[in-house]
Amino acid sequence: MFSSRSIDKIVSSTLFLCGLLSILTTIGIIFALSKESITFFSKVPVWEFLLGTSWAPLLEPKSFGVLPLVLGTMMVVFISSIIAIPTGVATAIYLSEYASNRVKNIIRPSLEILAGIPTIVYGYVALTLITPALKILFPEIEIFNALSASFVVGVMILPMISSLCYDALRAVPRDLREGAYALGGNSFDVVAKIMVPAAASRILAAFILAISRAIGETMAVTLAAGANPQLTFSPLKSIQTMTSYIVQVSLGDTPVGGIEYLTCFAVGSLLFVMTLLMNSLSQVVLVRFQKIK
User: Fold this and answer.
1) Domain range for residue 35?
2) Counting beta carbons within 10 angstroms of the beta carbon of residue 200, is it exposed (0 to 12), middle (13 to 18) or buried (19 or more)?
3) Residues 28 and 153 in one domain
4) Domain CATH for 209
5) Number of domains comprising the chain
6) pLDDT greater than 90 at residue 289
7) What is the pLDDT of residues 113-165, one digit of tens each?
8) Contact (CB, 8 A) for 163 and 111
C-alpha cells in the first residue's frame, strides 16, 4: 500500500506533467505556425498582407491582402455578440436571482445541450432554417450570408456566457445580497446595483472569452457565410472568415510548399495572435477590476 505522502507526490507529479504537456503543446503550435509563416512573409511583405484590401491567393492575378477575411470575421463576431451577450447575461441573472430550483434544473441542462451540439449542425440549421426566414424580411439576402452565420454563432456562445456569468453572480458573497435586501432594496436594485457591479470583472472576462470563441468558430461559419472574401459591411452578403479560408485550403487541392499553401499558416498565425490577445485581455481585465475593488 502507498503511504499518503507517496500518493501526494504521485498526484503532484501527474498534475505537473499535465501542465507541462499543455505548455509544450502551445510551443509546438507556435513553432509550426511560425516556421511556415516566416517563409510566407519572406515572399509577401507583412504590410501588404495586413493592409491589403483584396484576398485572392488561389486565383490569377494573386493578391494577399487579409483585410476582407478579418472584416468578415469581425462582422460575425460583432453581430453574434450583440445577440449572445444581453441574452446570456439576462439568462444568468434570472437563474441566479429569480428562478426556482425546478426551473434551473430544466434551463441549465438545456444550455449544456446547446453547447454540445456539433458546430456543423449549426451550419446546416443556418442554411435550411435561418436563411429562409431571413429571406422573408430581407428579399435581397444571399443564400450564404454573414447574418445567418452570426445568429448561429450567437447561439453557440450563449451557453458559455450564461454559464460563466451565472458562476460570477453566485460567487458574490451572500452577505452583500442579504444586506441590500435588509436596507429595503427590491430584486431589481439588488441585481443592478449590487450583484452585477460586484461581479463585473468576471462578467467582462466571460464576454472576452466568448468573443475569442466566436473568432475561432469554423464549420458553422464555413457552411452559413460562404467563401467570398469581399470587403463589405453588409451582413446580407456572402463573406469569408479566416477560419473558413483555412478549411478551404486544407481540402487537399493546394500543392504543399506553394505560396497558396503558406497562406494557410499566415492566416492561422494571425488568428492565433488575435485569440491570444483576447484571452490575455480577459486576464488583465479580471486582475485590474479585482485591484480596483
Assistant:
1) 4-42
2) middle
3) no
4) 1.10.3720.10
5) 2
6) no
7) 888 888 889 989 998 899 999 999 998 989 899 999 999 999 999 998 998 89
8) yes
